[in-house]
Amino acid sequence: MNDSSNIESLKRSDITDGLSDEQCQVLADVIEIHNLKDGDVLISEGQTDSHLYIIDQGRIEVARAVQGGNWVTLAILRDGDFAGEMGFIDGSVHSATLRSMGDSRILSLSRDTLESLIDTNPHLVYKLMQTIIRVVHKILTRMNQQYVEMNNYISKQHGRY
C-alpha cells in the first residue's frame, strides 16, 4: 500500500482527529498493514501485545472463551474501530480473542514506535493519546449503560437479590 493509501486509511478512523496533514504523513510512514483471512486471530485472550490496531476494512469478532469450550461474542468491530488499546497503553493482558470475520485489513502501531516519536513529534503523540483515551471512555460509557440495562432486566424478571 502506498503512502497516500495509508493516509486515506488512517483518515477513515478517528486516529487522525486533530492532526495536521504533516502529522498524518508521519503516522502513515510508521503504521504496519496486516491482511487477515476468515478465522485468523489478531489478538489471543490471555496474551500481551503492545500494538494499537485500527480496523481499516472488514469485521473483527471480539469473543471470550466460556465453560465447555464455547465462545461468547462480546462485540463486532468494524471499519475505523480500534482494538488493543489497553495493551498498547500499559501492556495489559488481553481479556478477549479478536478473530477476523472474512477478509480484513488492519493497521497497527506499536508502543515502541509511538515512544520513538515523543522527542520529534510530541504534539502528534499527545493527540494520539487523547484520541485513544476518548475511545476508551466511549467504550466504558457503553459498558456501563449495558450493565445498567442488564441489571434492570434481571431486577424486573427475578426481583432484587
UniProtKB/TrEMBL annotation:
InterPro entries: cNMP-bd_dom, cNMP-bd_dom_sf, Env_Response_Regulators, RmlC-like_jellyroll
Record-annotated Cyclic nucleotide-binding domain positions: 15-135
GO molecular function: DNA-binding transcription factor activity
PROSITE patterns per record: CNMP_BINDING_3
Pfam families from the UniProt entry: cNMP_binding
SMART domains reported in the protein's UniProt record: cNMP
Gene3D superfamilies according to UniProt: Jelly Rolls
GO cellular component terms given for this protein: cytosol
CDD domains xrefs: CAP_ED (cd00038)
Name recorded for this polypeptide: Cyclic nucleotide-binding domain-containing protein
Organismal lineage: unclassified sequences, metagenomes, ecological metagenomes
